[in-house]
Amino acid sequence: MTQMTAVxxxxxxGPFKVVHRSxxxxxxxxxxxKIQACGICHSDMFVKEGHWPGLQYPRVTGHEVAGVIDAxxxxxxxxxxxxxxxxxxxxxxxxxCTPCHRGDFFGCQHFLVTGFHxxxxxxxxxxxxxxxxAAIPDAVTSVEAAPILCAGITTFxxxxxxxxxxxxxxxxxxxxxxxxxxxxxxxKMGFHTVAIGRGRDKGHLAIQLGAARYLDADTTDPAKxxxxxGGATVILATAPSGKAMSDMVDGLGVGGKLVVLGAGAxxxxxxxxQLIGGRRTIQGWPSGTARDSEDALNFCALTGIRPLVEPxxxxxxxxxxxxxxxxxxxxxxxxxxx
Length: 338
What we know:
There is one protein chain. The chain is α/β, with parallel strands linked by helices and 338 residues long. 25% of the residues lie in helices and 28% in strands. It has ten helices and 17 strands. The protein has helices at residues 45-48, 98-101, 142-160, 179-188, 203-209, 222-228, 242-246, 272-277, 290-303, 317-326, and strands spanning 3-9, 16-22, 30-40, 65-72, 84-87, 90-92, 112-113, 125-129, 133-135, 169-173, 192-197, 213-216, 232-237, 252-260, 281-284, 309-313, 332-336. The strands form four sheets. Strands 3, 4, 5, 8, 9, 16 and 17 form a seven-stranded mixed sheet that branches. Strands 12-11-10-13-14-15 form a six-stranded parallel sheet. It has a two-stranded antiparallel ribbon with strand order 1-2. Helix 3 (142-160) crosses helix 4 (179-188).
């Protein structure tokens, strides 16, 4: 077989098109991955709508890629054909700039995003740089691994670097694609986990996932409720709404931190007094490197954390993308390859 199926975007705001392309050959220090699953992330919208600087079309997007190494290029020594691997947002770094010299590969001045700067996972095969590869443990299936490589690593990595300690009150705002994993990670890390969402129907799921308590923002004031509990050490803001995040600030305890994960376009508004009086901070957090992806995958294998997914075949990528945008999916949409 010399051709593969791929789903590409040919221009900004253009439709997804199912096409047949030649199967690419790995170059030095890269491998070819036979893709088994690729998650659909809200950030794929940046490629679909042309909202990312420097995009070149046609482009195959997708940065939650799980599969098996199918071929290796020259100079590859640490990875072998047949090995299960994942590729996330971190598509590569230069290794030469100042952040790279300091070991901050995610801060690389020439950072490559999978499915943005190079073709991603809405296809049957992917060429990946070796520094972007994460080993997938046997206990985690490819369909389960795909969302962990973005939503999973983002929530896991932000929580473990948040400064919260076991027993601290950690609130997770949103019970969706990011939030349903954030609740699980917070619970398994030993935090007193409070979930915040809209609607009574999400409460049962939040408790099932490990939340000690669910706050319905439609009927209560979550910030006031958190304050009555002593204030949150960390509020993980996963729903992409600047207003909803702004409403959470008063729920932080002394020294509390609002960690922003949901990539919304509207601003977060806060007064200096809100921050100064309680020594509160607001911090954004991206995902992480391939090493962070491995840590997240291994933590999931160890603790039993798994994403809730709705699978779609690759050829139905357009419908899967719309399902993700609708907000009705429970909770991540994943493309599967035949």
